[in-house]
Amino acid sequence: MRIVFLGPPGAGKGTQAEIISKKKKIPHISSGNLLREAVDAGTETGIKAKYYIEKGLLVPDQIVVDIIKDRIVKNDFKAGFILDGFPRTLSQAKVLDETLKKLGNGLDIVFYFSVSKESVVLRLSGRRMCVNCGANYHIKYVPSSRDGICDKCGGKLNQRADDKSETILERLKVYHEQTEDLIEYYKRNGILKEIAGDISNIEMITKNILDSIDLAEKRLNRARSGLN
Ligand code: AP5
Fold first, then answer.
1. C-alpha of residue 199 to centroid of ligand 1, in Å
2. CA separation for the pair 86, 93 (Å, rounded)
3. Is residue 42 a part of any domain in this protein?
């Protein structure tokens, strides 16, 4: 299955992408993680991206498109993938469609995580990430067993540079202005599935996503075997 996770910052896309990627054995490609890796490595792309990320703005399309396209074209994602945080503009969505078309396929399902502004602010202001392995926590909803220490590797937990309150509000504004149009775009393409992301039961959200993937897989298999 070729899947996109779409939604506002802090909607839970990364959390769910990691779980679903393991359960369905398909890679999780996060544009945010790839950009942060480039920033940490101090590459030319990273130096350019840092400026935008820290201000809560979108990194210019060309930079992000090059990183993601490279991943998709170079790797043989026969079993599928989960794209988390990409596309984020109509122009990115069109490049993705063209790239997949050239490879002889297309997206199967786009999950739109609908979440209130209040939840976004609560989730992002309480998020902590391991500086060592990148594991994701929340001081209230997903706490580590030892304060400030990662359960998985013992690394230190930090707040992301763009999770400061003023940057969170800017990211939300940018989302409404530049990304929300994608909901309509994918609705028109008939592949949008809305997920109620406001509930704090992470397992319940996972179950809803997995149920939808199962249904979509059954539909695809029926279509392939000519029974539809
Ligand atoms: P990116 O890293 O993609 O950030 P984002 O989209 O803003 O999303 P987040 O990672 O903040 O949130 P999430 O939805 O993954 O939530 P999470 O699961 O962590 O992008 C960062 C920046 O990079 C952008 O601002 C931009 O500058 C640049 N960028 C990236 N992609 C780009 C692109 N395509 N084009 C241009 N620029 C791009 O959850 C949040 C918190 O809530 C966590 O603490 C988690 O533990 C907790 N949580 C999760 N689910 C629940 C739940 N159900 N209930 C309670 N708490 C929960």
1. 16
2. 8
3. yes
Residue span of the structural domain in which 24 resides: 2-116+165-227
For the chain, the domain total comes to: 1
Cβ(208) to ligand 1 under 6 A? no
Q: Which residues are catalytic?
A: 13, 88, 127, 160, 171
What is the spatial distance between Cα 172 and Cα 10, in angstroms, rounded to a whole number? Answer: 10
DSSP state of 163: G
CA distance 58 to 175: 9
> 201 and 43 in contact (C-beta within 8 Å)?
no
pTM score, whole prediction? 0.95
**pLDDT tens per residue, range 36-88:** 999 999 999 999 999 999 999 999 999 999 999 888 887 868 789 999 999 99
For 193-202, how does the pLDDT look when each residue is reduced to its tens digit (9 = 90+)?
999 999 999 9
136 inside domain = no
The two counts, helices (H) then strands (E), for the chain are 9, 8
CA of 9 to the centre of ligand 1 (A): 4
Residue 158 lies in a domain: no
**Residue 40 falls inside a structural domain:** yes
CB 71 within 8 A of CB 82: no
Report the CATH number that the domain containing residue 44 is assigned in CATH: 3.40.50.300
